[in-house]
């Protein structure tokens, strides 16, 4: 059973998912705005301020679904805490390329990409969209 990732954004879900698809060689599977949603019984009219926000977006990257939504007044954005998206590769150049791209306008670099005792390269950051990332260049689960 595959595990997939669902992220929450503060109005930039479309930009984030499209940039991740481009960076990681994925495909945008769909983007639906709150304004495109059919009326739901028991739900009032969607405020005009959120009609262009993404209700559900989905990209496929290497067999993994990365999905997301934008916050609304009923479900305010609280940030992403306590978890990371991990990009795993055995290719040093690929880890450097991905980390450099994610670092563009990053909110915070927690650990610059560097060699560690467990990895040829490892780094962590919170990208411009508020998504925490770990970039790891090694075997995904070393024996030990």
TrEMBL record:
Record-annotated Glyoxalase/fosfomycin resistance/dioxygenase domain positions: 5-134
PANTHER family named in the record: PROTEIN YJDN, PROTEIN YJDN-RELATED
Protein name, entry field: Glyoxalase/fosfomycin resistance/dioxygenase domain-containing protein
Organism of origin: Pseudoxanthomonas daejeonensis
Lineage: Bacteria, Pseudomonadati, Pseudomonadota, Gammaproteobacteria, Lysobacterales
């Amino acid at each position: 059973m595959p595990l997939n990732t669902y992220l929450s954004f503060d109005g930039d879900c479309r930009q984030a998912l499209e940039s991740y698809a481009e960076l990681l060689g994925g495909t945008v599977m769909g983007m639906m705005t709150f304004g495109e949603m059919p009326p739901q019984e028991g739900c009032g009219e969607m405020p005009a301020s959120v009609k262009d926000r993404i209700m559900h977006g989905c990209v496929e990257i290497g067999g993994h679904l990365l999905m997301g939504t934008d916050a609304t007044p009923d479900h305010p954005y609280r940030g992403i805490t306590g978890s990371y998206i991990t990009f795993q590769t055995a290719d040093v150049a690929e880890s450097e390329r991905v980390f450099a791209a994610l670092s563009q306008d990053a909110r915070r670099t927690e650990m610059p990409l560097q060699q560690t005792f467990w990895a040829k390269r490892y780094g962590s950051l919170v990208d411009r969209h508020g998504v925490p990332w770990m970039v790891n260049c090694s075997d995904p689960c070393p024996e030990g």
